[in-house]
Design a protein that fits this description.
The protein is 38% helix and 19% strand. The protein is of the alpha+beta class and 96 residues long.
């Protein structure tokens, strides 16, 4: 990803929507039961939303670390910090 990141495109989505098949296969190797896998792939991650110009289909690319967050609150805090760090223009420091 290069260029300017748009803050409104930084989304919290389920791991299954933003991960590649290879990443999901890595997770499957570490999980013991189907129920555990079902819960795991529904955990929140930060992702950048891409919208196809031709058909309007949305796809997501994960931008958070290798593991999903444990809660949506934790993911929201990370989303706000990511926007602050990478999307907002740098502000000048003024001395009074």
């Amino acid at each position: 990803m290069s260029g300017i990141l748009q803050p409104d495109r930084i989304k919290i989505v389920e791991l299954i929507k933003a991960s590649s098949l290879d990443e999901i296969m890595e997770y499957i190797r570490t999980i013991d039961s189907y129920d555990e896998l079902a819960k795991f792939i529904r955990k929140p991650v930060l992702a950048y939303e891409f919208i196809d110009i031709e058909d309007g289909e949305k796809t997501y690319r994960k931008i958070s670390g290798p593991m999903p967050f444990d809660s949506y609150a934790e993911a929201e805090a990370a989303r706000l910090q990511f926007i602050h760090d990478y999307c907002e223009p740098q502000k000048e420091n003024f001395e009074l």
